Amino acid sequence: MGASCCSKGGPLSALxxxxxxxxxxxxGRVRDAALADDIVQACFAKAAARVGQLEDEAxxxxxxxxxxxxxxxxxxxxxGAAERATTAxxxxxxxxxxxxxxxxxxxxxxxxxxxxxxxxxxxxLERIDVEGAAVKDFAAARGIAANNAGxxxxxAREALRKKVVEAxxxxxxxxxxxxxxxxx
Length: 184
What we know:
disordered N terminus; Rna Polymerase Sigma Factor, Chain: A
């Protein structure tokens, strides 16, 4: 079985002699000369590794064509998966950009007004509303009861809302102060 394939004129040499034919076969299916060359080269590497399986020139040629078709199919599957992943990523990026564009712009007065609040209110708003800490975690870090922390952040929000309405007037009414139009 393997003796003829290792001889100088064996099936592997016959396959090498038909490289141009194999390249034309693959090029007609992938429409990219560099990719076709890569596929043929990969199949030659596989054939060299399996040289003992090659019986004669006729069966080696049929086997090599089958290997080429399989490699083309694998390439298309990988390309399809990559395209689907790219499309999904593009959709996620587009969605994220649209979400950022839809995010209302907070009034600049809020930053100015927040500094006039009690320090414990500022602390509660920064930790809970800005940094996203849980009320119970905030309470534990400050050594107060969770109920007390909840009341503190509620009062802080109310105080901030009142101060913003005082500073901005009509644009802040309705609990908003987003997409600010005030000149303050």
